[in-house]
Amino acid sequence: MANLFTNLAGITSPNPFWLASAPPTNSGYQIMKAFDAGWGGAVWKTLGVPVVNVSSRYGALNYRDTRMMGLNNIELITDRPLKDNLKEIEEVKKYFPKHAVIASLMVETREQWHQIVKDAENAGADGLELNFGCPHGMCERGMGSAVGQEPHVLKTIVGWVKEVATTPVIVKLTPNITDITVPAVAASQGGGDAISLINTIQSLTGVDIDNFVPYPVVDGKSTHGGYCGPAVKPIALNMVKECARHPEVKIPISGIGGIENWRDAVEHILLGASSVQVCTAVMHYGFGIIREMVAGLEQYMDEKGFQTLDEMVGRAVPNVQNWENLNLKYKVVADINADKCIGCQLCYTACDDGAHQAIGLVEGSRVPEIIEENCVGCNLCSLVCPVEDCITMVRRDDGSEDLTWAERTAAGDIPNTFNDQRGGGVGHYVPEPKEGLKKN
Amino acid sequence: MPEYKRPKSPTEYAENFAPIHPLMNDTQAHYESSRCLFCYDAPCINACPTGIDIPLFIRQINSGNVTGAARTIYEANYFGHACGNVCPTEVLCEGACVYNHQDVKPIEIGRLQSYATDQVIRTDKQLFQPARPNGYKVAVIGAGPAGISCACELRMYGYEVDILEAKELPSGLTVYGVAPYKITNEEALEEMAWLEKQFGFCVYYKRPIKSRADLDQLEEQYDAIFLGIGLGNTRPMGLPGEELEGVWGATEFIEQLRLEQENAMAGQRVVVVGGGNTAMDAASESARMGAEVVGIAYRRSQAEMGAYPFEYELAKGAGVSAWFNAQPVAIHGESQVIGIRLVQTETVDGKVQQLPDSEFDLPCDMVILATGQEKQTSFLSQIHDLSLDKKGRIQVKADHQTDNPMYFAAGDAVNGGAEVVNAVAEGKKAARGIHDYLFLTKNN
Ligand SMILES: Cc1cc2nc3c(=O)[nH]c(=O)nc-3n(C[C@H](O)[C@H](O)[C@H](O)COP(=O)(O)OP(=O)(O)OC[C@H]3O[C@@H](n4cnc5c(N)ncnc54)[C@H](O)[C@@H]3O)c2cc1C
Ligand SMILES: Cc1cc2nc3c(=O)[nH]c(=O)nc-3n(C[C@H](O)[C@H](O)[C@H](O)COP(=O)(O)O)c2cc1C
Ligand code: SF4
């Protein structure tokens, strides 16, 4: 039976599922309810000098029938007095000594950092998370992502915290930066015990086109917000992986961004996360989703034969390579299962208009046909196909050859002039331009 | 022209009785599971007598954990697959789906349930591990939904369980009574075989428990006895001509249909007497067996019918017609039935009254009486201290213990005849009652 016990830089919890610092962790009431439902840990809504918020605060990206595939917010850190939060941290810890309660913090001066670190630890927090990620509002005041985007400042503040902290310190990073490993390395060098990422991404989810104001509308005006939810998972996964494979990031990772089910969590873990944090999915469906997450993770671990999470963390990282190390001899082509095809011809139009003209229509049939010699194996048709397992990619090389761009470069065998005959598309079928007329 | 021709081969039979809720494929399951809203305090869970965590299992299907979905289902309901097929979901989970409030099609919960459970049955996945033997033995009489559900749950507590079944197949009316277009014999029996493997109870077939001597033996050998005996045969109406050839009780007609399939006895011109779901089933089934004319005769009005509206619609769709306010008074024929005499009625103050001079005859070669099943009172009267209510139902306490402390009971024999899912839920509850009785009461 899989053991979900989790240890991130010394912060332990019964399972790797933590609530991210956000509205679901606003109060002791919510965190007690969440632990009772099965969550393993919680990062308290960022503490600091209480703020004043606006109304309204959120905008969402709906995609077709899916509500809130992306969520955008312009909320700030906690608006509750510190002493109320501390009292509740103490109470939660009393009921749940084995669960992880982490205090997220955001203040300005060295004195304030020292004070709030001591206060949080005295209240019983198992660890601290430094919020260097909030990309709206707080950054205008020199905090949040304004810190996360300045590695020197970040390192200095981590140093201030480490002067007094006795519990592990997690540095929460902003994704609003070109190279996520720069602040990650700074956090590691500054003495941070772990990093967590991602915080939200600067965004606008849409515009009220009748009144000419982006969402969310505050009395006829708006401001950019922070984006999160299922839509950001790919960005989060890439950044987690970037940190996990960077040799100078020597500290563990808490993965955040777009986690809604067990599979999302497993992906974060395989790319290097030792624990995962969830915000939007709980804001959408409540704490009850934890049942699916825990059951799914256990089932997966049992089926794969993983006893502990440590065996899984980062398992996919070695398989992430630079492009130049991928095998150019590997060859797949699309294959349509005619029995499953429902004749929508989306693959045909996707390939003909958006790819490589490798799918043809057959007279008297709605089932398209792969023109194998034209197929470059890009996957597009299999991605647009609405039927499970109807278009699959089948391997055509025999696996005996392995040649990478790096090797070709070393051998001097790469195209290097504009009309070089070694270009990959040379000799590949392209219809005459005129054939594009009267086709629609 | 009738809708259906008399089936002459297994293939034609299968065509005529094609499943009304066919098994979903992966694509269907993917799209359908995407639609679930994951409601808080979900009304579908509350509407399910076994309380399956429906939003959870649907989300598990959607996130690719189909095995986990099946586990969620079976943890609440040991007849997960049968129920997905045979439950009247329109009045249970699917009827409670919040989409109904905006006239959006409710989630097809039953079919998703069958989809998930089918995969673990087909791949023979071991999901449950019975507890270590606790030293107690329980006898279960009847391998129907109530009995098997009780047995599975008892095995999880570590009891040795022997099931004594009068007939040759397990699952009770699931295989002998439910309409074949809801569940095939193979489907019902495959789930039973899987359960037997998972839980390791023993079923002894053709072992009816009839006499006081049989009961003495059980009482001596076992620590508790569970009664999951369901109901009895169709109750006679006392009509002149009821003994004629071609006059069937509905449950007997359906049982031979399920067993004999395309070779079953069926009429050309059939009159089905009754207005409940069994009447609708028998009429639909007769039509699917190629009858030229099938008519339902019900002594009250359409609005007073006990059958679910969708069951009546299903029968009408198969070509069945109905006479309302028509009560049978006699069946005609020498040795074989040739017709039935009905009289028109009206309902006054809830009572059916016959209208004078309103009798009419219908020619037919088969009459099916779907007017209710008998209770097994003469068998039950042999059990000491057992109390039955006025309708012959076994009286039980909340934990399903009867007035004879050694005996527990559930299912149709207790509720008077409900659905498979009710019998399953009650059988499981009774197992907990037995466990409390043997461990708490007896040990103190
Ligand atoms: C025609 C018909 C159609 C139905 N359709 C549906 C439907 O579509 N959906 C649905 O949910 N429900 C349906 N039901 C109801 C459902 O089948 C029952 O509610 C359910 O099977 C009751 O389960 P049970 O275990 O209490 O009894 P049963 O299913 O009746 O099982 C009792 C078992 O005990 C055995 N037994 C009885 N006496 C003895 C004895 N003395 N010794 C040994 N064994 C004995 C019997 O042989 C039988 O196997 C239908 C019922 C009928 C009659
Ligand atoms: C309304 C809202 C408020 C948030 N407030 C905070 C905060 O106070 N501190 C913080 O570190 N992150 C905050 N976040 C960011 C989340 O903790 C998390 O990093 C982000 O939402 C990505 O995870 P998700 O895709 O699971 O939502 C907030 C997010 C939302 C939606
Ligand atoms: S969720 Fe709705 S009701 Fe609750 S605070 Fe926000 S706007 Fe108000």
In short:
Chain A is an alpha/beta fold and 440 residues long.
What structural keywords apply?
heterodimer; A: 440 residues; alpha/beta; TIM Barrel; Alpha-Beta Plaits; 2 domains; eight-stranded parallel β-barrel; four-stranded antiparallel sheet; globular; B: alpha/beta; Fumarate Reductase Iron-sulfur Protein, Chain B, domain 2; FAD/NAD(P)-binding domain; five-stranded parallel sheet; 14 strands; binds flavin mononucleotide
Describe it.
With 440 residues, chain A is of the alpha/beta class. Helices cover 29% and strands 19% of the residues of chain A. Chain A is built from 13 helices and 20 strands. Chain A has an 8-stranded parallel barrel, surrounded by 8 helices. A 4-stranded antiparallel beta sheet of chain A has the order 5-6-14-11, with no helix packed on it. The longest helix of chain A has 15 residues, at 290-304. Chain B folds into 3 domains: 20-122, Alpha-helical ferredoxin (Fumarate Reductase Iron-sulfur Protein, Chain B, domain 2, Orthogonal Bundle); 137-232 and 375-441, FAD/NAD(P)-binding domain (3-Layer(bba) Sandwich); 247-369, FAD/NAD(P)-binding domain. Chain B is an alpha/beta fold and 444 residues long. Chain B has 18 helices and 14 strands. Helix content of chain B is 38%, strand content 15%. In chain B, the strands form 3 sheets. Chain B has a 5-stranded parallel beta sheet with strand order 3-2-1-4-14, sandwiched between helices. In chain B, strands 5-13-6-7-8 form a 5-stranded parallel beta sheet. In chain B, strands 9, 10, 11 and 12 form a 4-stranded antiparallel beta sheet that branches. Chain B is globular and about 70 Å long. The A-B interface holds A 65-66, 261-263, 285-286, 288-289, 291-292, 295-296, 299-300, 303, 340, 386-389 and B 25-27, 30, 34-35, 38, 40, 53, 55-56, 59-60, 62-65, 67-68, 71-72. Residues 86-87, 141-147, 164-167, 172-174, 177-178, 182, 208-209, 228-230, 251, 254, 278, 281, 379, 411-413, 418-421, 423 of chain B line the site of flavin-adenine dinucleotide (FAD).
